[in-house]
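Run Thiol:disulfide interchange protein DsbD N-terminal domain-containing protein through structure prediction, thanks.
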Amino acid sequence: MIRTASVLSTIAALLLPSLASASETPWQEIAPGVETRVVGAGTITAGETQVALELRMPSEMHTYWRIPGETGLAPEFALSEGGATIKFIHWPHPEVATISGYVDYIYRGAVMVPMTVSVPEGVTGLSLAVQLGICSEVCMPVMADFDLALDGLADPGNALRIRQALADEPILWDGATPPVELEAYDAETNALTLRVQDPAIEVSSMLVSVADGEPLFGPASKAGDLITVEILDAGRPDLLGTEINIDFDTSNGPYRYRTRLSTD
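Sure, done. The structure for Thiol:disulfide interchange protein DsbD N-terminal domain-containing protein is below.
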């Protein structure tokens, strides 16, 4: 279960000359104290390349995960021109935060969101439009447009940073035993009870979700080896049989475990 990194590639990238890179856009200030840009790995392999949106925010400010929560604004990414498409967005594991009584899934400070992009032959650049919600005491929608050149030349420094950011995306649990077990699902009280099976799980980091984002789930509350997670949308029909994602952090990085809600 331990993730491994390419030590040699890391050392090699760090030893490269510190030169300006063509595989990155200039920083843009999109809110007071908040800057963003797009960086790329440079190479195109089997019609795909890796890019990432990079954000720098003060610690008191935040933006949102793919499912923003009760009050947030879901991020939007769109490519235009040339037929390039976003194949995957590799969302880092977010924080489950209760802010002014509402539950949101957020990122604070510095964050990088990698993307795998399909690139048709002959495309020499990407035009990416981004819309985000940026919040401190008040929230505001912000938009930014980026033009990133694609010359097919490797950018080892940014490629390394993107690989490091990919390690923050939960990977599917492949252990011999489940990390948690569904102890009970109560449709009347709108709550899940889970039993912790693996002591490496950082319960405070646990996030329960479904693929389409609805309903929303609250933060995990632990008592002994039992965890209670409230289902926030009380008007949602019975979720029996619904597949849920249980994401959590460990000392080896974040993982995702999938199971279906049942009363067994």
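The first helix runs from residue 7 to 15.
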